[in-house]
Write a structure and sequence with these properties.
- The chain is an alpha+beta fold.
- Among the domains are: 1-30; 174-251, no CATH class.
- It has 6 helices and 11 strands.
- The chain has helices spanning 40-49, 55-58, 102-153, 158-172, 212-217, 262-265, and strands at 2-4, 11-13, 60-62, 71-76, 82-87, 93-99, 179-183, 186-191, 194-199, 204-207, 227-228.
- The strands form 3 sheets. A 5-stranded antiparallel sheet has the order 10-9-8-7-11.
- Helix 3 (102-153) runs antiparallel to helix 4 (158-172).
- The chain is extended, with a radius of gyration of 24 Å.
- Mean pLDDT is 76; it is low at 28-33, 133-139 and 244-264.
Length: 285
Amino acid sequence: MKVKCNYCDQLIDEGQRYCPNCGASMPTENRTASGQPKTIEELQEWYKAHNLPPEEVTRFFIGKDYREPKAFGIYKASDGDFVVYKNKSDGQRAIRYKGVDEEYAVNEIYQKLKAEIADQKSRSAAARVSQPSQRKSGHSRSTILSVLAFFFLSKFGITIIVTLIAFVFAALDNSPSRGYYRYGGNDYYYQSGSWYSYDDESDDWDYLYDSDFLDDVIYDDTASDYRVYDHSGMDFEDSSWYDYGSSSSSSSSYDYDYDYDWDSDSSWDSYDSWDSGSSSWDSDW
């Protein structure tokens, strides 16, 4: 796999620490943050220290040449090379990296593991938040059907019934559009049924567990009163909560500067749940 030197624009083999054409330091030189694992053994310890589920659940096999479908992994081959791979849903293997640079190889799988953790935490949190609203929605719909049945049995006209159906379901649709909102002097982002809040001091986004106060004021026809289209801090699209995997389809587009405090954010909690079926298994990475 080739990467482009930022100084002379020449394509060279991925994994080089210095450009053989101009001698410039390559982006991979400073990709690892202080304290992050640099060897397979250190990554194994990091995995355990963060209380992650068993490898059969996460589908991350560190230090193993695992051959079954739906798996990410890293291992040292018999020829001395380090191999980072992904087994797709059909069993086909895509090699992300194969070379002698262990630190580089470990960072590749480490970054992918962090991205998967962020996606799983976001999905799990959204599922927990949506459960009460789903029960409430189901109850509301049952009530609606009862009311409609009453009107129907009372021989109301079809036009009135259709109008009532449209009115009631419009009233139930109280989800704001995806995007930025500003309320009470703070910035928020809404997507997929969940709210996220922005912290000025850390210039970072976090999942907002207690979002009832926003749900009470920002909905349906009032959403436009709080909607904003610019943000002075970190864009939500650059945070770990926003479809992080879409930026890692190739080495040239991978965000090498993604260095959040994963010692606190990626520890697995008892209320988190990992669903490997939600991962994208048909892409190369």
